[in-house]
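Here is the promised in-class demo. Please do not try to memorize the tokens; focus on the logic of going from shape to residues.
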């Protein structure tokens, strides 16, 4: 069957394309945002990519069009497929119908940490010899690609709360019917489709309704917004996690290193193992606990899960070290929400101690571009010594009030060259530069590395 995917370079749709190819289908796709790492991964897999959304991409007619949730009415290819009566579906529906049937699905949901936790869980199950299938909304460093069908009965999926398609406004995760579900955290996000937090909580409860009574829900004790979801009705045992021992948590972490690089894991107060790894921050420890709890539900011992996580390589664009040039470390991070910025910089600060920390931030997500979180941004970046906020053309609001509210040193750049010149001329050996964006950022990452190499 010939499948054509509209919006194929999105993290979810790109991973779905790999699964569809592995199912034996011929896969092509269109997108306006063709950039690495996803475009590289798809091209290496032999999948033909087309720029834009022209109706000619659907000629001759494919057997099925899989429509990404970025597609809207008025787009040429969308209008053509409707006018021609072509068969179409959403990505989550295709995944549910063609991949997840008959599987024990482990779903990872939450505002933050989904991609990293999904990767951790797939890694732990893989190290345990369970040969899981998985779909990760990013490019993992421990696997050759972001999705695979797997050979076992388990499938790990990043369970996103974003909507499924222009014709299906339910959250993606409603389609997946997990038996093991991680609910990592819950905050207001995606202001382009959700009016308020309650609207997101309603979708999370739709997910909870689908989890069987013999399944498991995993949630931290600190997330009151998740507690409110579960209070709407829950028919599944819940395992609670905590950083620091708590009588209400069955699984907890005791930090050995303050930056989260080394910690003990306790089950009902008894130490079961230790994790010593390259990840930093308490958010990473929280993700690890959720992973261990989910893996334990399918038979992986806590000790074995700890051993596997100690060898975990991480995910591209999650505090990924791009290079160290003349003693200056350059990191790429996906942070797209004030909480994500805060937790990432907290982990970096604890590791760097007194070394200078630069944060270069592009407010690119739909929620950021709408200004829904602008009152929280200055505080979220407070742990950096120097913050450069990028004001791109088309941003609907002015970043100057964010700079004015900053307690640390902050400035605005309107061109990428300004950012590069500032860092090249001012950064010193021992400094760390964290570039934060959920997009390509105009290739800033590699341009900065090249400029620093040229100076060195």
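The designed amino acids, position by position:
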């Amino acid at each position: 069957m010939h499948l054509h995917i509209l919006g194929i370079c999105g993290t979810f749709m790109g991973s779905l394309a790999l699964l569809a190819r592995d199912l034996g289908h011929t896969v092509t796709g269109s997108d306006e945002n063709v950039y690495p790492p996803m475009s590289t991964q798809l091209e290496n897999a032999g999948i033909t990519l087309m720029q834009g959304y022209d109706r000619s991409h659907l000629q001759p007619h494919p057997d099925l069009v899989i429509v990404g949730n970025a597609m809207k009415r008025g787009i040429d290819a969308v209008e053509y497929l409707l006018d021609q009566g072509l068969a179409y579906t959403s990505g989550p529906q295709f995944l549910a119908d063609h991949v997840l049937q008959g599987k024990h699905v482990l779903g990872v949901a939450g505002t933050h940490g989904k991609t990293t936790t999904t990767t951790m869980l797939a890694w732990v199950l893989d190290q345990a010899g369970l040969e899981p299938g998985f779909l990760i909304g990013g490019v993992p460093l421990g696997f050759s690609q972001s999705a695979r069908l797997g050979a076992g009965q388990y499938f790990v999926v990043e369970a996103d709360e974003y909507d499924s398609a222009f014709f299906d406004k339910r959250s993606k995760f409603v389609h997946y019917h997990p038996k093991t579900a991680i609910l990592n955290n819950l905050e207001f996000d995606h202001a382009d489709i959700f009016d308020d937090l309650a609207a997101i909580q309603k979708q999370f409860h739709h997910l909870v309704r689908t989890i069987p009574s013999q399944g498991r829900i995993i949630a931290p004790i600190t997330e009151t917004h998740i507690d409110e979801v579960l209070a709407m009705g829950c028919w599944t045992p819940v395992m609670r996690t905590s950083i620091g021992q708590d009588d209400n948590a069955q699984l907890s972490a005791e930090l050995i290193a303050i930056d989260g690089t080394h910690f003990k894991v306790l089950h009902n107060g008894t130490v079961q193992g230790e994790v010593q790894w390259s990840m930093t921050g308490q958010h990473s420890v929280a993700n690890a606990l959720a992973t261990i709890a989910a893996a334990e539900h399918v038979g992986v011992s806590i000790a074995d899960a700890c051993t596997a996580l100690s060898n975990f390589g991480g995910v591209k664009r999650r505090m990924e070290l791009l290079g160290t040039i003349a003693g200056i470390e350059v990191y790429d991070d996906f942070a797209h929400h004030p909480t994500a910025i805060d937790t990432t910089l907290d982990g970096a600060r604890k590791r760097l101690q007194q070394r200078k920390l630069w944060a270069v931030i592009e407010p690119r997500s739909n929620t950021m571009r709408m200004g829904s979180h602008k009152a929280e941004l200055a505080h979220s970046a407070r742990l950096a010594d120097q913050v450069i906020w990028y004001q791109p053309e088309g941003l609907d609001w002015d970043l100057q009030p964010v700079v004015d509210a900053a307690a640390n040193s902050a400035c605005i750049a309107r061109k990428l060259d300004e950012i590069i010149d500032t860092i090249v001329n001012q950064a010193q050996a021992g400094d760390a530069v964290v570039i934060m964006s959920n997009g390509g950022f105009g290739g800033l990452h590699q341009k900065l590395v090249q400029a620093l190499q040229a100076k060195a």
